[in-house]
């Protein structure tokens, strides 16, 4: 799951990032309006944490731009401003939740998981295909009822495939969703090939009735077999 933290205060931003990364989220950040706009225009996120007060623009204006772009990313407003009119305006503009500073990190994490839960696979936390079940809430994979041990990236790749089963997944889109900002510095997709190779082997060894099919020059597709 990929999170974008839009927060201009460096210490607060780093504390939030550290807390979410401990929960196994992939976290990116932006310190201002324009940096955030560039990221949201280029990538999709499972949840965006949005501060209203930014040095170069308003978080509420960002919400209006998200709406124009028809983005479906979940948004939680995090702000020291606790005025009712700001909260109402943010929710009317499409925010999923509002959390006033100061807040406990445990509550923030719970709110993030809650909005993701509502939107993951159209509200379904259990993704299923043939004899595979992916529990996205608890980050557990079962093959024919038996738990399959995967590392963090292998799980994220499989969950992404399961949420888009039988669809062609572009290599670039997969890399951006799983690896985030780090993709921009990569010279090739060797890091994807390695993880998918290992994932394929684990699925095969567990007699999973699915297949990660390579589409030459484009990407991959997860299909039943």
UniProtKB/TrEMBL annotation:
Keyword Cell wall biogenesis/degradation: no
UniProt superkingdom: Bacteria
One of the protein's GO biological processes: regulation of DNA-templated transcription
Organism: Chryseosolibacter histidini
Stored InterPro entries: CheY-like_superfamily, OmpR/PhoB-type_DNA-bd, Sig_transdc_resp-reg_receiver, WalR-like, WH-like_DNA-bd_sf
Protein name listed in UniProt: Response regulator transcription factor
Start and end residues of each OmpR/PhoB-type domain: 124-224
A single MF term (Gene Ontology): transcription cis-regulatory region binding
Domain Response regulatory: 2-116
PANTHER family from the UniProt entry: REGULATOR OF RPOS
Modification type 4-aspartylphosphate: residues: 51
Keyword Phosphoprotein: yes
Any Gene Ontology CC annotation: cytosol
């Amino acid at each position: 799951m990929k999170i974008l933290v839009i927060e201009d205060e460096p210490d607060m931003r780093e504390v939030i990032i550290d807390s979410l990364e401990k929960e196994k989220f992939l976290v990116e950040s932006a310190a201002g309006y324009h940096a955030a706009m560039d990221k949201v225009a280029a990538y999709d996120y499972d949840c965006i944490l949005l501060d209203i007060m930014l040095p170069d623009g308003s978080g509420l204006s960002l919400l209006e731009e998200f709406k124009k772009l028809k983005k479906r990313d979940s948004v939680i407003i995090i702000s020291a401003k606790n005025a009712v009119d700001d909260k109402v305006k943010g929710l009317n503009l499409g925010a999923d939740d509002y959390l006033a500073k100061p807040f406990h990190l445990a509550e923030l994490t719970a709110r993030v998981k809650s909005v993701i839960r509502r939107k993951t696979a159209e509200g379904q936390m259990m993704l299923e295909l043939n004899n595979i079940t992916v529990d996205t809430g608890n980050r557990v994979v079962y093959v024919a009822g038996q738990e399959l041990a995967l590392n963090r990236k292998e799980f994220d790749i499989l969950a992404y495939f399961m949420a888009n089963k039988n669809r062609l997944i572009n290599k670039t889109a997969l890399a951006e969703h799983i690896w985030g900002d780090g993709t921009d510095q990569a010279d090739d997709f060797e890091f994807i090939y390695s993880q998918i190779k290992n994932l394929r082997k684990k699925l095969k060894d567990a007699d999973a009735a699915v297949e990660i099919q390579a589409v030459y020059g484009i990407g991959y597709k997860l299909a039943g077999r």
